[in-house]
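Researcher: I'm preparing a figure for a lab meeting and need a structural model of a single chain. I don't have an experimental structure, so a prediction will have to do for now. The sequence is pasted below. Please return the structure as tokens so I can convert it later.
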Amino acid sequence: MEQAMESYIVTYKELREGGFTLPDGRSGLAASGISPAMAEALAACPFVQDDTVAAYLVLSDGAVVGKEVYFTTRIKLGDEILDAESASSLSVAPAYRQLAVGADIVMATFLRSRLFLGAGVSEMALPLDRKLKFHILEFPRLMQLRNAKPLLAARRLSWLGGVANLPLGWFHKFLLRKAGRLARKFRIEQVSTVPGWVDDIVLRDGHKYAECHDHKWLQWNLDHRFNDHPRNRQAFFCVFQDGEPLGFYMLKERFKEKAGGLENVLVGSLVEWGSRDEGRLTESDLLLLSLRDFSPGVDIVETATADENAARSVRKYGFIPHGRANIVFKDRTKKYADAADMGLWRVRFGCGDVILT
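Model: Understood. Here is the structure written out token by token.
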């Protein structure tokens, strides 16, 4: 039997006024699975207007069967910085996945957005983005194992966890000593307010294209997240030398009940970083320094980089390639034909919604 479906658009005005009501009178936030933490994070986005689309819902007989949320980001395009749409949390009820509900949601976004940038797109959604001729930038995802127990438990080898963790623990202590020696060259300070001087690093690094991770964007991502699990956190660190700011790095931690076949894991991620002078503070230096700042209970540390030299350099810290990260960009203005060239982009793991999720 053919399913009767309708779309419902939620604006930021509705979101900021405490939510919205579906046609049948139910709370839209609860029915669509938009958690209080997600609603708060979206409402705090510094770049949206009241009439900006906050969510697109697909309803069938009054039930929400598909959803995606949106926020405004900004992109450096040559000498300009322009608003672009970004999206997160695309979901479709299992019974409706064969009815192209997800494709309908993506198409609605595509037709609405002149400029769109997203990241961390699933393998299921990437083929559609390719058909719609998105520029897709893919780069190596790197992972370091700190605790073998979740990995071995997934293979029904839990009894080996303690033994496997002995060399991992020794290696981790070695890396912490190495990071400590490096840290003596600098003054490293965790801050709750992102300083304005980071703008000079992220916007003037020589790349033609970049998502605009200035201090306003970074502050929003530092202060908010879509899931308020008590073990989740973000942290921002400034690196100084000789009394002058030299660089920064930002990390996040997320507890995941399920992640790639593993259960109940705490994943730490280096999501943003930058240096005024790569001769004094390299990308691999920043990764090494960040290892001291993850919580002791982190099971896996991950990052992703488009810098092949950095990816090779951090292998000695136990980071091995594991899958691919991605950034997708759509330019319906057709002004930026060379945007498919990843070499022209400032690429970071923490693009789009990656830090918030």
